Structures are given as structure tokens and as C-alpha cells.
Amino acid sequence: MNKTLVRSVGGKIFDFLSSLSFALVILSLLFLLTWLSTLEQVEQGLFEVSKKYFSKDTVFFFPELNGKTLYFPLPNAYWVCVLLFINQLLGGIIKIRKGWKNIGVIISHSGILILMIGAFITAEFEKRGNLLLYEGEISALASDYFDYSIEIAEIKDEKISEIHVISGKNLRNHTYFNLANLPFDLIRNDYRENALAVSAKFTPREKSAKVIDGFFLKDYEKSDAAEQWLASVELELKPKGSNQSTENFFLAANNFAPKTIKIGERTFTLRLQKEYWKLPYEIELTDFHHEFHPGTPRPKVFESQINRIHSNGVKIPVKIEMNKPMRHEGITFFQASWGPPDGAPDRELYSVFEVVHNPADQWPKYSLYVTSLGLLIHFIMKLSLFLRGAFSSKPTKPQKAKAN
Questions:
Q1: How many domains are contained in the chain?
Q2: What would the pLDDT profile of 80-97 be if each residue is shown by its tens digit?
Q3: pTM exceeds cut of 0.90
Q4: 255 and 163 assigned to the same domain
Q5: Residue 256 sits in which domain range?
Q6: Pair (328, 254) in one structural domain
Q7: What's the rounded Cα separation, in Å, for the pair 204 and 200?
Q8: What distances in angstroms separate CA 194 from CA 191, 272, 325, 334, one per listed residue?
Q9: DSSP characters for 7-27?
Q10: Residues 24, 103 share a domain
Q11: What dihedral angle (degrees, nearest 10) is formed by the CA atoms of 193, 196, 200, 201?
């Protein structure tokens, strides 16, 4: 192939991806996606709409408006942002004319790229959960808001000797689980985000519903509060070395009794529960305080006095308030809520913290600093050039009129 032709085609692609017109198209698309997702959120809920509009799992989707599907495919905002990142990198960093006159513009574009990289890191690695504590209680485990995991525990001498966990990510994305050091594997036939295992004897069901041990999975309407959904899963038990499954069963988050299975002389329990992740330190709630606006049920203040307990036993007292979180070792604790919901004075109060692990938590702040610095440099340079031109220009002397 002609090298000149290759360079010509490559140059045209480069010019298109780095152009201002392409940036305007991308920004217009992002505005449209944000507007439609805001309208759809009213009916579908934040969690479902976020997955639909801002997840990398799909490239195109059909939006909905007033409950009706609009058969006009739109690109997912995640991939639109990828294109915007490419546009800013090519146009604002690589293609721009280098020199001291454009140094402020280059710094500002770098700040925008830092913000976008932080957003990608957040989308890939952020974990959100909660931690509920009563006064005097200590914990170092956060419960994930959305993901459920399967906990497999071996029982020896009536005690739990070892625990194996199938993570929520694997549970959603895989169907076969080869469990090392266990005498069996598991096959996932069905996984539902919001369904309960209910009795087929007392609950009406569709003919297609699968019944196991007198129970079937019944889907429930997904509320806006996705953290309150209860997941269910159908599994097959396949002993190691066997080509056939020996048992089908349901695990449901609404069933607090674990499933017990026996393989030879070994006994195991399986439980479906919210996924837990260990914090790098323990949290002890020493005091919880709340106030309401006079004559209203609106909270005026609710705050928690805690001790952050490190591995060496050192206790650091910290106060966590509304809009004043605690950040330490990459973990952020927000004062999210409190209970019990009825606020009965004779019942023991508890505090609920939203726990966020986000490696890019502070990147928006860094991006703001870098972008502001670039804009300030660019403004000062333009101002100095303007003032220099204004004061260096000499006024022209009026010419005398010549006599006729």
C-alpha cells in the first residue's frame, strides 16, 4: 500500500478526532444523555439508569421516555467519554502548537484529562458500602450496597474451620465455579437481583417457574433504593470427579438459614449474603448525637464520635458529621443515616456510615487546581500582552492643514 496514502488517511483520522467540531458533537451527546437519564431516573431509579446509561457493558441502548421505548439507539455515555478523552488528548495536548504562549492552555487541558482519568478509575475500582454500629460496638467490615456473594463454610467439630467466598462480580459474570480445595464445584443456572424464594404451596406462580424442594423464585418490583433489593440464585452441586450434578437448590438473601450439604464425611454450609470487605482498621462508635429543626422531622444535626483503632491498638478519636466525612488510608466514611426509623426514645440508637473506597477520591480536587492554574496563567499572559500593547503604542500627532 502507498505510504503516502496511509499517512493521508491516518492524518485525516487524527484531524477528525482532534477537531473542535468533533468535541462539540461529543459534548452535545453528553448533554442529551444526561438530560434523558435524568428524566428516566424518575421512573426507573438511579441504580438501573446508571447501569443503562453509564456502564461500559453496553455500547448502544434504547432510551425510554414516559414509560415508552424510543427506538433510536444512543451510545453509552462511558464510551462517549472515552472519545472525549481521546479528543482532548489529541487536540489539547498533542496537536496544539507548543510554546510559552500556549502553556496555560496546555496545563488547563491536562487538568481536564486528570479529571477524566479519575472518573475512569472510579468507575472501575470504586467500592461503596455501609457500616451500622450501635454505641460501644466495634467493627472492621463494610457491607457492599449492591453485590451479593456466596459464603461456603466447612464445619468441623460443630465449628467453622474454613470459609470460601464466591465474590459478587464472579457470581454475576460466571456460571461455573471450580472450587479449589473443596470436594465439589458449583454451577449457576439463574441469578436474580431482586427475587425471593417463596413456597409453591401457598404462592401463585407461573407454569414456567422452576420448583425445587417446594419453593420457586418470585421476582419483585425493583424499588429506587437498589441497596434494599434481595438477590436469589439457583445452583447445581457437582462433586469432583463426577460428570453429573447431584443436587439443585436455591440460595436466597431472604432466607437466613444456610444450605447444608454433605460430601462423604465433610459438612459444608452455603449462604447468600451481602458482600463484605475488610477495612484496614476498626471503627468503634463511642457516642451518637442528633437534633431536629424545631417543630419539624427534618434533621438539623446528626453526628458520630468514633475511635479509629489501628492494628497496633492505638485509638484515634474522630468526629464524623453531615458533610464532614473522615478520610484515612484511601477509605472515606460519611455520616449517612441513623436509626431506628421511628426514632422511638426507648429504643437504642444506631449510626449508619457510608463507606467508600475510591483510589481517585481526591483527583477532582487536583484537577480543579491544575485547570485553575492553567487558566490563571493564560489570563495573566493575555492581560500582560494587552497592557504592553496599550502602553507601548505612541499617540499620533495631528497634522496641520495645508493652506490652499
A1: 3
A2: 999 999 999 999 999 988
A3: no
A4: yes
A5: 147-275
A6: no
A7: 7
A8: 9, 13, 31, 27
A9: HHHHHHHHHHHT-HHHHHHHH
A10: yes
A11: -170
